[in-house]
Amino acid sequence: MKVQRFAGRTNRLALEQVRNVMGPEALILSNKRTADGIEICAMLESGSVRSVIEQAVPAAFSSEGTTNEIALAHLKRELTDLRETLHAALGQRQWQDSAGKRPVIATIEQRLSTLGLDRVLIGDLIDGLSAETKLDDGWRYAISNLAARIEVLTDAEQAGLRVKAVVGANGTDRALAIKQLAEVALSQYEARDVAVISMLEDPSSVLGRYCHERDISSLMAPNADALKKALAAVKHCRQVFIEAPDLLPSQGSQDPALAALLKQRAGLTALLVLPCSGQSEYLELVADHSEQLPIAGAVLTGLEDATSLGAILGVLARRELPVAGVADPSNQGLLSITSEGLINESKRLARRNLDRKNQQLKVAV
After folding, report:
1. Which helix (H) or strand (E) holds 43?
2. Which of 283, 339, 347 is nearest to 154 (CA)?
3. What is the CA radius of gyration of the chain?
4. pLDDT for 75
5. 17 Cβ contact partners less than 8 Å away, ≥ 6 residues apart
6. With contact defined as beta carbons under 8 Å apart, do 38 and 7 qualify?
7. Burial class of residue 117 in the structure, from the number of CB atoms within 10 Å of its CB (0-12 exposed, 13-18 middle, 19+ buried)
8. Whole-angstrom Cα distance, residue 191 to residue 321?
9. 3-state class of 288 per DSSP?
């Protein structure tokens, strides 16, 4: 069990080093702030077990080349005991870490964890709490820090972004986001001042019907050259929305959608669609990949289906990514939301999850 230390100017840079060296199986043991930034201690939980197997298997064969079944069974038992001992040691370490902290800090960490926040972000939020801090004051301090990290893109700021490419999530979510963004634009401008350009070979039928019903210009541009011509054709419009195809993170900078958008004029910005029900790994992957574009903010979808907002809060807070609004199919236009409102919704979901678990325990008993 080899523990390695990684240092970075920010949490994200330090975590990237962990992933690059150890991969997704890395177990984060601790993180702390240093004079140079953030230091993370990590290890590969299964690394020592694999090395034991690799070293021990040759010994399980006799000189005649036949397998010694008794030796293999004994080896399997030893490896099982080793894994159980490892898990027990790690569990004891976590208990000791918690027990060594002041009760107020431990309680605040537990509350933040209930919201679905990861340990690194929790550490940043409570950094600076003094030994004399009371529970209520400390909780308000942590929540205030979280709210301060979540920005909101105002209507005026959105109106100032003339050409907006809507990227991320799936086609249904992107179409819903564009439809509701266009509805907001129609409350400020005439229909002739709003346009939608689709980069999909098979554009969303829902979005197409909407443009037809609202008398909004709708164009198709399946490649970079066609997109350039389409943008020139709607240069008189006050608000232009681009329906981007699915992103392909595995292709990196060679992603056709990103390449086509990056070839356009500098006035183009992007809005990243983030599904509230998405897993943290997926949201981080999409956010990392889309950073090649000038991302102005995020549109949240699927809030009505979410069971936790911890992953969403983490992406927004770590990247200081402003929220442009919430796309909800039960509403006509994009819903505005504040950082406090988003955190309160996260608290509501956390309470609902706790109530559900309590009910399950009662039934089990």
Report:
1. strand 37-44
2. 339
3. 26
4. 59
5. 6, 7, 8, 40
6. yes
7. buried
8. 30
9. helix
Residue whose C-alpha is closest to residue 194's, from 244, 243, 241: 241
What is the 3-class SS of 55-90, one letter each residue?
HHHHHHECCCCCECHHHHHHHHHHHHHHHHHHHHHH
DSSP 220: E
Are 28 and 22 in contact, with CB atoms under 8 Å apart?
Answer: no
Element (H, E) at 364: helix 339-364
| Nearest CA-CA partner of 261 in 295, 285, 218 | 295
Number of CB atoms found within 10 A of residue 34's CB: 8
Give per-residue pLDDT as tens, 153-205: 988 898 899 999 999 999 999 999 999 999 999 999 999 999 999 999 887 78
Angle between helices 310-319 and 119-126 (to 10 degrees): 60
Length of the chain: 365
Residue 328, both tokens: 């909800």
- Average pLDDT on 222-237 reads 94
Q: What is the pLDDT of residues 203-220, one digit of tens each?
A: 778 899 999 999 999 999
In eight-state DSSP terms, residue 277 is T
Q: Kindly report the backbone phi and psi dihedral angles of residue 95, in degrees, each rounded to the nearest multiple of 5, phi listed first.
A: -65, -40
Residue holding tokens 């972000």? 121
The string of DSSP letters for 295-313 reads: EEEEEEE-GGG-S--HHHH
Hey, what amino acid is at 13? L
- Burial (CB < 10 A; 0-12, 13-18, 19+), residue 50, is exposed
**Residue 18: its pLDDT value, please?**
80
How much is the pTM? 0.70
pLDDT greater at residue 14 or residue 125: 125
How do the residues of the chain divide into helix, strand and coil, expressed in percent and rounded to 5? 55, 20, 30
Our CA dihedral for 237, 177, 116, 8, rounded to 10 degrees, sits at -40
Strand (E) or helix (H) holding 240: strand 239-243
For residue 76, which amino acid is it? K
Query: In whole angstroms, what is the distance from residue 15 CA to residue 91 CA?
Result: 22
